[in-house]
Design brief:
The protein has nine helices and 13 strands. With 332 residues, it is α+β, with helices and mostly antiparallel strands. The protein has a six-stranded mixed sheet with strand order 9-8-10-13-12-11, sandwiched between helices. A five-stranded antiparallel sheet has the order 4-5-3-6-7, covered by helices on one side. The chain starts with 5 loop residues before the first strand and ends in a 7-residue tail after the last helix.
């Protein structure tokens, strides 16, 4: 009789019993990258490879891998996956891929997210290797996980292109900050709020002790009431995401005007300038900031990437702005 995989007559492996654990909403994000020549990356981005659109097929491969994770890894529990999302970001010399997996389950979806991003990258590799064999895969790691006993965990290296800096130098010594998402679809349950959790991760990574998140429809009156509530409570930093575009219900900047505070136009300019590096449509954003007493309100775009990219752009200014608003010295 074979003794492979056994120790002392007992199995050397065991699947953890999760039967008594409660079902909670689980979210995991993982990332990885493919390094290639600039000309190769341009062909990938434009969908001009001989084998076709690499990103579309890679996303399908990643989704399939997420679903097949328990078949590939023997001790992973089969899970009812609610959603799988991929993001692709082209940076100088590399393609960054992020995979997000959502499930209501008794255990986490870390391995599903890692399997998804790995299969996605391997699919791109397969479609590209014929024109560029000098490819490299790397930086595959978990970004964050939400749900279960650990609550909210962020990798010590921080988030990837979703916004939390790899080596965050900014520290915000704040007991509390608020994040308010403005979205009709999310408030109706037709879409998931991804910007709010990402902004919370960014703020927590910079030292904010407590982050309160709120979700509202695009209704100026509701937002105004909530903003005044936070300001009256003495919350120093309030961040909104959504309602800064040109749509008929995008009214966040107009709502900030009703607070009768002091605008900080340089923050809006910096956010648009930083965003324009990714898309020229960033110049259409009406991102803004206003100081009301000693509370700083920053209005960010509604997309997760745009929101976190914009907040990251002004992060180094926040501590000084709050310090000066409370009577601190003007540092040069």
């Amino acid at each position: 009789m074979s003794t492979v995989g056994k120790a002392g007559g007992k199995s050397a492996y065991r699947m953890i019993d999760v039967g008594e654990k409660p079902v909670t909403r689980r979210i995991c994000r993982a990332t990885g990258s493919l390094t290639a020549a600039p000309a190769t990356l341009l062909k990938i981005e434009r969908g001009e490879l001989p084998k076709g659109n690499a990103l579309a097929l890679a996303e399908a491969a990643g989704i399939a891998a997420v679903k097949k994770t328990p078949d590939l890894l023997p001790l992973c529990h089969p899970l009812p996956v609610d959603a799988v999302r991929f993001e692709f970001l082209f940076e100088p010399g590399r393609l960054q891929v992020e995979c997000e997996v959502v499930a209501h389950a008794k255990t986490g979806v870390e391995m599903e997210a890692l399997s998804g991003v790995t299969a996605c990258l391997l699919c791109v590799y397969d479609l590209v290797k014929g024109i560029d064999p000098a490819l490299e895969l790397g930086e595959i790691r978990l970004l964050e996980k939400i749900g279960g006993k650990s609550g909210h965990w962020v990798h010590p290296k921080g988030m990837a292109h979703s916004g939390v800096p790899q080596n965050p130098n900014t520290h915000l010594d704040l007991d509390e900050a608020w994040v308010i998402t403005l979205s009709d679809r999310c408030s109706r349950g037709e879409a998931e709020d991804t910007s709010g959790p990402a902004l919370e991760s960014l703020l927590r990574a910079t030292g904010v002790k407590q982050v309160r998140r709120e979700l509202l429809p695009d209704e100026p009156e509701l937002l105004l009431v909530l903003l005044k509530q936070a300001i009256d409570r003495g919350v120093r930093l309030i961040v909104t995401t959504g309602g800064t575009g040109l749509g008929p219900r995008d009214r966040t900047p107009e709502t900030l005007d009703r607070l009768e505070g002091r605008r900080v136009p340089g923050m809006g300019e910096l956010m648009r300038s930083r965003g324009a590096g990714s898309t020229p449509f960033a110049w259409l954003s009406r991102s803004d900031a206003v100081l009301v007493g000693s509370s700083l309100v920053i209005a960010l775009p509604g997309s997760r990437k745009g929101a976190v990219e914009s907040l990251t752009a002004v992060m180094d200014l926040i501590d000084h702005a709050l310090d000066v608003s409370s009577g601190g010295d003007h540092r040069s």
